[in-house]
């Protein structure tokens, strides 16, 4: 039985809904494999414009790893490798991604949300990086660029729960809504994105990913080079006719 519901809207918006409400969408190996298959397919889809990561039940986007899954030591390593691959696949998607952050967004769920480009929060949000409690070495890489080093240390070291209003103040959320309308708000945001130039969005997504590792002067230099090439070799800015 599938743990992932998929829907394609006409504008090229793909909605991935986690569908294990009985465990608050905790991720087991089967669900992780489903996610990987879907992400591999989407990465190669030229009609794709935006990916929205959501849930079939607003009780949770994702409560983390399924700690009830019975695993041998080797299977535990396999599952962690699947988690790492899912995180990498989300980063590699060539289009913008939007996370619907409702209910429990904890551990691996928080990592999925942080790995998306944009986030919409519901008023029942319970967001937490819970790795410190179990000694799991995860959290700083994705969170620190979003909120800054000092705030990231607070959230990761304490593992405390963050609600919608605080998450918005920390600039973790780009839109907020009542929990029942959070997905609709995320789709509305996605529709704003697809109103823009499709190739331009993919280029900008690639630039963000490429530039994150570069010092500021090199980022600016590369962007300036792209700008001139856009005007010289690409479509360029609209120009009024002379005369």
Tell me what the structure shows.
- It is a single chain.
- The strands form 2 sheets. A 6-stranded mixed beta sheet has the order 1-2-3-5-7-9, sandwiched between helices. A 3-stranded parallel beta sheet has the order 4-6-8.
- It is α/β, with parallel strands linked by helices.
- The chain is globular, with a radius of gyration of 19 Å.
- Helix 1 runs parallel beside helix 2, helix 2 packs parallel to helix 3 and helix 5 crosses helix 6.
- Helix content is 48%, strand content 16%.
- The model has no long low-confidence stretch (mean pLDDT 93).
What is the secondary structure topology, with strand pairs?
Blueprint: E1 4-8, E2 13-18, H1 29-43, E3 50-55, E4 60-62, H2 73-92, E5 97-101, E6 104-106, H3 108-115, E7 118-122, E8 126-128, H4 131-134, H5 140-147, H6 149-158, H7 164-169, E9 175-177, H8 182-194, H9 198-211, H10 216-233
Parallel strand pairs: 2-3, 3-5, 4-6, 5-7, 6-8, 7-9
Antiparallel strand pairs: 1-2
Helix pairs in contact: 1-2, 2-3, 5-6
Task: Fill in the keyword field for this structure.
single chain; 243 residues; alpha/beta; 6-stranded mixed β-sheet; 3-stranded parallel β-sheet; 9 strands; 16% strand; globular
Distance between the termini: 67 Å
Structural class: alpha/beta
Mean pLDDT comes to 93
Mind telling me the C-alpha Rg?
19 Å
| Percent helix range | 40-55%
Q: Tally the helices: what do you get?
A: 10
Which residues form runs of ≥5 with pLDDT under 50? none
Helix and strand pattern? EEHEEHEEHEEHHHHEHHH
Strand percentage = 15-25%
Please outline the major beta sheet: 6 strands, mixed
Work out the number of β strands: 9
Shape: globular
Strand order of the largest sheet: 1-2-3-5-7-9
